[in-house]
Design a protein that fits this description.
Layout: H1 6-21, H2 26-39, H3 42-46, H4 50-67, E1 69-71, E2 77-79, H5 80-101, H6 103-110, H7 114-119, H8 125-153, H9 165-184, H10 190-206, H11 218-225, H12 228-241, H13 246-274
Antiparallel strand pairs: 1-2
Helix pairs in contact: 2-8, 4-5, 5-6, 5-8, 5-9, 5-12, 8-9, 8-13, 9-12, 9-13, 12-13
């Protein structure tokens, strides 16, 4: 028969809060997510991929004939299609991550009552957050991979650095997924969920996706540079041309902070909602 000393009791007490948050079993959430994907129609999974592709085909080819060449991140002239394609890749990663981390999460939270059931098991809120965000990353990865293939077919990949576009897209998706799930945890009605669409649309249109940031007045430029999509757009453009600088690290750091803040808020909210 073992005897626990005072130090052992202290260590055991210290572990309890951590084990209540994370049981190291996020894999169970991920496995369930893949089973759901397997049983559903794959059209639902890939539907969000086509929107940026259609923008690339219509504006990159159609409008590109009128615009001609534009100045790339390294100062060299590039085609308009090559200019907007990396930006639309960031949009594609964002779309995939946001769909899975907002509407999908909202349904599971308020209608399927899935998370309540999960938290009755050994799973903690951090397990759920990691598992659900991973599934959002999977969708973002598929979108990025498919869109990069479209860019290659159209001859818009001209440097070996373009191989980094997919992992960079996953990083962009990670940031949006972690933040999207955190925000969704505060939503209680479908009307409130429309706020997400209301925010995403102008961010898509005004984050220098289709034209340079310099077209805006300086106060507006500062506002745009605070938006997460702008950092993704600029990061993708720099990778697609191999034009790296210290600003590239700043874009990456922006998403690292976004991921950490989003994960912390999501875990805290899930615990507050379902572990009272």
């Amino acid at each position: 028969m073992s005897i626990l000393h005072d130090d052992d009791y202290i260590l055991a007490a210290d572990r309890r809060p951590l084990s209540a948050l994370y049981s190291r079993n996020a894999r169970a959430v991920i496995e369930r997510g893949f089973r759901v994907i397997k049983s559903q129609n794959w059209i639902v999974l890939v539907s969000g991929f086509f929107e940026p592709v259609f923008y690339l085909l219509s504006m990159g080819i159609g409008l590109g004939q009128l615009v001609g060449s534009v100045q790339g991140p390294n100062g060299a002239p590039i085609s308009y299609a090559a200019y907007i394609a990396p930006a639309l890749l960031a949009v594609s990663a964002m779309n995939g991550a946001i769909y899975d981390s907002t509407w999908n999460i909202f349904f599971k939270m308020h209608f399927g009552k899935l998370y309540q059931s999960m938290l009755y098991t050994s799973l903690g809120p951090f397990d759920i957050a990691v598992g659900e965000i991973f599934m959002a990353l999977f969708r973002g990865f598929l979108y990025a991979l498919g869109f990069t293939g479209v860019m290659a077919v159209m001859g818009l990949i001209t440097t070996p650095w373009a191989l980094l576009l997919v992992p960079a897209s996953v990083m962009v998706a990670f940031g949006f997924a972690s933040f999207g799930m955190a925000i969704t945890s505060y939503m209680k009605t479908f009307q409130q969920m429309d706020i997400i669409t209301f925010v995403m649309l102008p961010m898509f249109l005004f984050s220098a996706t289709f034209y340079p940031l310099t077209v805006y007045p300086e106060p507006v430029q500062w506002l745009v540079q605070a938006l997460p999509l702008w950092h993704g757009v600029e990061l993708m453009r720099e990778i697609s041309t191999g034009a790296f600088s210290l600003v590239t690290l700043l874009h990456l750091l922006y998403y690292v902070v976004m991921v950490l803040v989003g994960l912390a808020f999501t875990t805290r909210r899930l615990r507050a909602l379902f572990l009272r």
